[in-house]
Amino acid sequence: MVILVVTHDDTRRGHLTASLRERGYDVVVAPHRQDVSATMRDKQPQVVVLDLYMSNPSPLAILQEMRQEGSHRKVVALGGSSIRSTMGKAMGMGVDQLIGGVSACDGPLDLDQVDSAIRACFADQIRKRAHELWEQQGRPRGRDRENWQEAEREVLRQPTSL
């Protein structure tokens, strides 16, 4: 799965990129913030991790462009109390998961929470695949966890078309 990380903060970008790659994701970063749109077109990420504190380009402009193009990419937004109005607008524009409590620069960011938010974006697909596995196996008892884990591996680690 390809994930595009979009943030103005070099430290945060480095932590996110390293953590997500360590977890098996293919992570891309736009060479410059102004190249976000071109990077989305070129790399076709399934998920965009979007820092709402960013400016130039505005995260709301990025979201608007994605939705106008008919993109069904999942969006995990990072925000905090100082930008509540931006967070509300972003949710109204189709953000799939919002991680609050993030400060503008060098603030704490729970990387496990980011991974959980990405997984939550695909919960319906994972649930459907786990059910298919259960059906294929003849509906055995006690295999729920194994089927869920296999479904997660299949859904989250394979490229998908949008």
Brief rundown of the structure:
The protein has 162 residues and is an alpha/beta fold.
How would you characterize the overall build of this protein?
This protein is an alpha/beta fold and 162 residues long. The chain has helices at residues 10-22, 36-43, 59-68, 84-92, 111-121, 123-136, 144-157; strands at 2-6, 26-29, 47-51, 74-78, 97-99. Strands 2-1-3-4-5 form a five-stranded parallel β-sheet, with helices on both faces. β1 (2-6), α1 and β2 form a beta-alpha-beta unit.
Secondary structure: elements and pairs:
Elements: E1 2-6, H1 10-22, E2 26-29, H2 36-43, E3 47-51, H3 59-68, E4 74-78, H4 84-92, E5 97-99, H5 111-121, H6 123-136, H7 144-157
Parallel strand pairs: 1-2, 1-3, 3-4, 4-5
Helix pairs in contact: 6-7
Report the total helices.
7
Helix coverage percent: 40-55%
Broad shape: elongated
The strands making up the biggest β-sheet line up spatially as 2-1-3-4-5
Strand content: 5-15%
**Given the helix and strand composition, which structural class is it?**
alpha/beta
Terminal residue distance:
12 Å
Order of helices and strands: EHEHEHEHEHHH
What does the main sheet amount to? 5 strands, parallel
Radius of gyration: 17 Å
User: Are there runs of 5+ residues with pLDDT below 50, and where?
Assistant: none
| Mean pLDDT score | 88
The number of strands is 5
